[in-house]
Every structure is written in structure tokens, then in C-alpha cells.
Specification:
Blueprint lengths: L1 H8 L32 E2 L6 H18 L4 E2 L8 E5 L5 H5 L12 E8 L2 E7 L3 H16 L8 E4 L5 E5 L29 H11 L5 E3 L12 H14 L5 E5 L4 H4 L11 H17 L5 E4 L16 H12 L4 E5 L11 H9 L10 E6 L22 E7 L15 H9 L11 H5 L10 E5 L15 H12 L5 H12 L4 H22 L30 H5 L23 H8 L9 H4 L14 H25 L6 H33 L14 H6 L9
Parallel strand pairs: 1-2, 1-3, 3-5, 7-8, 7-14, 8-9, 9-10, 10-11, 11-12, 12-13, 13-14
Antiparallel strand pairs: 4-5, 4-6
Helix pairs in contact: 2-4, 8-9, 13-14, 14-15, 15-19, 19-20
The structure holds 4-O-methyl-alpha-D-glucopyranuronic acid (GCV).
Amino acid sequence: MCVLAGLALAPAAKAEDGHDLWLRYRPVEGPARAPYAAAGTAVAPTARTPTLSIAHAELERGLSGLLGAAPMVAEAGSRDGVILIGTPATSPAIAGLALPMKDAGDEGYLIRTVSIDGKQTTVIAANREVGVLYGVFRYLSLIQTRQPVDRLAIASAPKVGLRMLNHWDNLDRTVERGYAGQSIWDWWKLPDHADPRYAEYARANASLGINGTVLNNVNSKSLSLTAPWIAKAGALADVFRPYGIKVYLSARFSSPIEIGGLKTADPRDPAVKAFWKAKADEIYKVIPDFGGFLVKANSEGQPGPQDYGATHVDGANMLADAIGGRGVVIWRAFVYSHEQPDDRAKQGFSEFKPFDGHFRDNVVIQVKNGAIDFQPREPFHPLFGAMPKSNLGMEFQITKEYLGFATHLAYLGPMYEETLRADTLVKGKGSTVAKVIDGSLDGRKLTVMAGVANIGMDRNWSGSHFDQANWYAFGRLAWDPEASTRDIAADWARLTFSNDQRFVTPVVDMMMVSRETLVDYMTPLGLHHQMGRSHHYGPGPWVKGGERADWTSVYYAKAGADGVGFDRTAKGSNAVAQYAPPVGACFANLKCVDEKDLLWFHHLSWDYKLKSGQTLWDGLVTRYSRGVAGVDAMGETWADMSPYVDAERHGQVSNFLKIQRNEAQWWRDASVAYFQTFSRRPLPAGEKAPPLSLEAYEAMSFPYAPGI
Ligand code: GCV
């Protein structure tokens, strides 16, 4: 019924492969076009600096695509409908307008409808040229999403200073936890050949305000700090510079030994200090605006200062001194050691909290959103709010290592939002993680939000069309960590597919529940780390033994005849004590803790009564099945969307939803089969028994799963 109605009105969309992302600039057609008839028919001449040339060209490209004709060049004030872009320094006309430029901040912009010599003019002005580029993208997005542009009074400035992607890209072009093909960095041909993709990449990121990129994996090689590789990074930096994007490199802590000929990498050793100082100088000679180093130290086998009895502070500050005022050192708090038997969830806090206030001003501690590792759901990391005298940055994962790779549709906006809006309560109500990250809670000036990129050589960049939404949402939240991810989803859906409300409403609703659906069929009620060993593909609640206990599923679920869940209350690991007292007390209290986090904090009997009145066992099974039903519902919604989406993209999403449906069922069946061996209780009425034996699920093997 709804499909037929749509077919009658929506013209058949042309095939698209998704390469254009949210920057498609397809023509505004039909009655929607009228309000824009006067807008954008002319663009005033723009100073021809590299960044302003890009901004000007983007404006022309966007307007040509959206309005069907290239805008003419006309002086502001010569006619109505002229768009004037620039900074007060590059445009006397803008300087003459006496706009409240401080509202644009350092990197933001103003977009205003003004009268110049009696003619209606749109001004896109910024203090820095990159702000003009951001403003141009915003202006075009208004037309793309069919918002009025005739009376504009917009001021927007980013709340976070360093908005960056972290690529886990290896030098051989494999990507750790990457599901979108090879790395886009064609190292072999760099520095002599700069693939056009690099500029496309920079343009896409600039459209979101992303202003930094760490090129290489945090599990890094010293080779990337040698002269030939610095030159390659330099060639990329040259492409990115006019788009306002700085290049950073992951630095391997043992580089002084591996490429410096030293016997030690002890950060207190004068020769080691000299090595890093010289290395930084060498990099800055090639890349004058180099952003700095990202370091994974003493974590998962990576070298670090603790190898020499030194501390994270010794290591980070030594590198920070080598960089000096030229850049930053981003030091990851994702640490847990082989020797430490304590709850892995506690180790980052235990290692870093005592060092609060000891790090240099140009050091940022980069903290994952949760205390384990990018699980489908984690309570916020206890370090947020706990280090007021240090710069603390956020690390989100955009690539879906634990969330079904590229073939499960899971919009991560609500997951990011859940963490950012979590209240640490450290300074009373409203001490949200977002306010830690944007620096406002503790008056910090150096602020960072990083996302582990989901970008590769696939034509659609992210391995699936819907995974583009996660890159997009990350960028928008880095600009404003308090933004609504529903609004962001709506913008993305309009930009990427269609402005038709019959498309936007159901698709946004589907996106907003998609991650919760995935949590239901993978790890409901606070379960975590239940996936296949090493590749993290599919269910693996039975995973045990091997190198380390905290790489196994049984360590986290602790299923037994007595019940299931990880006791992190005072009776257990007492991880709750790492939070501000009212937060920890709530997590520890069964009457207060949200059921979504139940088994993260509590080990409970299979007969524990949930709020619904169901037993824990029944509730667990019901949730797994609800997740499968949720994927069915997504499939139905998407099937109805065919009138609004080209067949190529519609078809790929449909196929992926079929994969997701099968894998959700697999997750449900395998998990139920496993946990039932402990619960020894019947399935709730109406629930089907898993079709295979537990042994059959356990025997499945996937040696070629991607992303390892
Ligand atoms: C880059 C998890 C991932 C690793 C990743 C690590 C990290 O353990 O599985 O692939 O390594 O996190 O964030 O350093």
C-alpha cells in the first residue's frame, strides 16, 4: 500500500554507489525548488588562497548540482542573491559589515542574510579561512536538506579543539579492525603520487569539521618514523592542509632502539630524549604543522615506559618535551597488563588516576568510551571526571569491530550520545562526560575527540552505506558533543538518500533503535565480550583458555549454575568504587542500576526477578529473540523504502540486512544453547529451541574473518 503510493510519486532514482557520501548535491526538483530560485545565483569573487579557493569551488559545485546551473560571479551589492564568503582579513566587504565575529570563534563561522547596497546578500564569514570552508558546507547542507536560506542568522563554533580520526592502518595497507577494504593510504606510491582519493577524503572530513588524522595504526611500526615514511606522511599533509586537517603519527615507544641504534627506550635516558627531540625536529622540517604523536604504550604487548620501570608520566612528558609548543602528545589510557590479575575494567583508572596533574600541558590522555573495549554497550569509563587536572580526550570506535562489522546495520549515534550524556556527578548534577570532553567542566583548553576510522578503499568508503552515518555522526558530535543524534540521523538520511518525509521518518526511527536491537541479540542486560576469539566475529560465549583470561568470554559472563554476570560491587571487583560515590552507589544497588547494565555490575541468580516480573533467564532469552525480531522489522522497513532509493544502494542494504538477520538468529541460538547448559531451565513459552547442538556452534571456525 505504502509502496504503491510511493511509486506513484517518487521518480526512479539513478543508480549510486555511495561514493559521494552526504555530499551528493543532487538537483532540487519540483515545488521544493521555488524557495531557492533566488538563492545562490551568484557568488562574489573570493580571495584565491588555497583554502578559500577550495571553499569557493565547493560552493560553485554545490550550487551547480543543487540548482542546475553554475552561479555567475557578481560583486556583493550589485544584485540580489549574491553569496559573499571570506574572512575580515581577505574581504574588505566582510570587514565593512562589522559582524559579531567573535561568535564564530577560532574555527567556526557566521552565515547571515544581510543587505549590501540594498541588495539581499548571504554572507559566510569566519575568522580563519577553514571556518569559511566549514560555513560553505553548512550552507549547502541547508539547501540539501531543504531548509530556508533567505533569512539566515547562524553562528556555529566547535566545542572541541581536536576533532580527529584515528586510522588503524598498517603500512602494508591492511587495516586492523577495518571492514571497508584496503587502507586508502597507498604508501608504496607516496610521496610521488597523491591519489585523488586523498583530497576527496579531506573534503569529506572538512564537511564535518574534522581537523586531524592519525595516519597509522596505534600498534605501530618504527619504520613509519624513518625519513622515507615521514616524506610520505608529508605528501598527505600537503593535500590535507588547505582543508584544515593536520597529520599525526602513532609512535612506537621502542623506536630509539629499532631505528635509533640505542640500547634502551627508557624515557629518562638522555640519549633517548635526544633521539625523540631530533625525530620531532626532523618531522617538523617536512611537516611544519605536524599535529603530534599518538601512543599506545604498555598495552596488549606494545612497548612503553614501564618496560624500564618508568611511568606513563615519564613517557608522555618526555615526548611532550620533544614536541614542545609545536604539537601534542596523545597518550592512550587503554592499558591492561598481563601481570595484573585485577578486573580488566579497573586497570585504566588504577594506572592513570594517581597521575592526575602530572602531565605536561600538551599531553592529552585519550580514554575509550567504556572501561573494557568498545563493546556494544558499556557504562561510561570511570576516568571521565576523575582527572580534572589533566587533559582528557574521548576515543570512540567508528569501525564496528564488536558490532557486526560492515554488514550489521547499527547506527552508533545513540551509543556515543549515551556516553556523552552520562552524568559523572563529580561536580554535582550536569557534570556530563560531554562537559569533560569539551573542557568546560574543569576549564581545560586542550580538548580532543577521536574516532577509530571505518574508512577503506571500498567505493562507498565505509563498507556499507549505513556505516557512513557513523563517520558522519562522529564528526558532528566532535563539533558539538551535546548535539542530538536523532537530528544528526535525520540530516544524514536526507543528505544521503532522500528528503521525502515518507523515507526520512521510518528510516530515522529504524536507525535510532538499530544499536539497541544489536545489543539485544548480541549482549543483552549488560553482558559483554561474548564474541568469537580474536576476529570478534559472531557469538563465542564459550571462549575460554588461551593466552589471557581477560581475552575470553567466560571471564566476563561468569555463567554457572548459580547465575550469570560480573560482580563489580564491593563483594566482587569493586569497580563501582572508581565512580563518583552517588554513581557507584547506584550501579551497585539493584534497585537503582539500569537493567541495561545489570550483568556488567552484578552476578545474579537465573531466577532473579527483572522489573518486568520475568526471571533473569526468561528475560535474557526474550531479549535475544527481541533482537532477532528487531532485525526483521528493519528488513521490513527497508523493503518499503525502495521507491525512494536507487536500486543499487537499496539492494546492497537489503542484502546486508539478510546477512544481519541470519547472524542475529545465530547469536540468539548459540547464546541460548550455551547459557542453558548453566541455567538448566526451560525456554519461556513460545521460544524455539536452538536448531543445532552447542557443540555444533562451538565447532564453527572463521579463519578468514576480516579485520584481524
Ligand atoms: C589496535 C582492541 C582491538 C585491537 C586494538 C586495541 C586497541 O583490543 O581488538 O585490535 O588494537 O583494542 O585499541 O589498542
